[in-house]
Amino acid sequence: MNWTKEDLAYLRSLRGVVDSDNIKIKEQIKQELATNKYIAHVLHNIDLEAMNASPDEYFNVNIFPYYIISPTQHNVNHFICYETSFTELDRYNRTEKYMDIYFYILCHEKDAIDSETGLARHDLLAALITDQFNWTNLFGKKVHLVEDKAGVTDEDYASRTLIFQQVTDNTLVKTKNSVSRLANKDVVV
Questions:
Q1: How many CB atoms are located within 10 Å of the residue 163 CB?
Q2: How far apart are CA 1 and CA 183, in angstroms?
Q3: How far is Cα 55 from Cα 36, in angstroms, rounded to an integer?
Q4: I need a labelling partner for 114 at 20 to 30 A (CA). Which of 7, 12, 97, 101 fits?
């Protein structure tokens, strides 16, 4: 199959045009994190700091829109990964759903304490994320922290998982054949 410039342009356009809550919310999170110089500083990436990198340069290095990191690390790194999840409120409410945003914070044990504050790095990053997102209207309605849980991934990483939740509008997705789906019910437009 030959890919044209138009094919690639269509795929790139899904970043901001498609009615996909996962893509839309993850892009909003990325934009928010890209403005936070404190999170970039506490991630303590020595290579990026040496280059005087801006917070948005930490994406795909220390910050990922999915929860997978390479098992092979040549340098001590810390990570923030985030995911989204959606569930219906109940079977009689087709217009609203729960939106959960998961932040997974992973800090290597060799640099687990922030030397400038004396705080555990994963707790400090969790506090910064909570301060930035909790009780805000960034996603259209108030989002709030419903879980804050410490853990370990293996012998090398301390972790903290934050879950923010919001009741949000259920998505109406208009497909190419002019059929919208609302709570598993086809409606011709």
A1: 15
A2: 35
A3: 6
A4: 101
Instruction: State the amino acid at position 37 in one-letter form.
Output: K
Read off the pLDDT of residues 135-146 as tens digits, 9 standing for 90 and up: 999 988 999 999
Give, in order, the Cα–Cα distances in Å from 170 to each of 6, 40, 97, 140: 31, 33, 6, 12
Q: Which residue has the higher pLDDT, 36 or 94?
A: 36
Domain chopping of the chain, boundaries: 17-67+74-188
Residue bearing the bigger pLDDT, 106 or 7: 106
Model confidence over 104-118: pLDDT tens digits?
999 998 999 999 999
* CATH assignment, 17-67+74-188: 3.30.2000
Cα–Cα distance for residue pair 159/149, rounded to 1 Å: 8
Residue 189: its pLDDT value, please?
36
Evaluate whether 26 touches 84 at the Cβ level (below 8 Å).
yes
Q: CA 79 to CA 90: how far, in whole Å?
A: 35
For the chain, the straight-line distance linking the first and the last C-alpha, in angstroms and rounded, comes to 33
User: With 0-12 CB in 10 A as exposed, 13-18 as middle and 19+ as buried, what is 38?
Assistant: middle
Reduced to 3 states (helix: H, G, I; strand: E, B; else coil), residue 159 is strand
Torsion of CA 150, 58, 37, 113, to 10 degrees: 40
Tokens representing residue 132 in the block? 């930035």
**CA-wise closest residue to 139 among 26, 32, 25:** 25
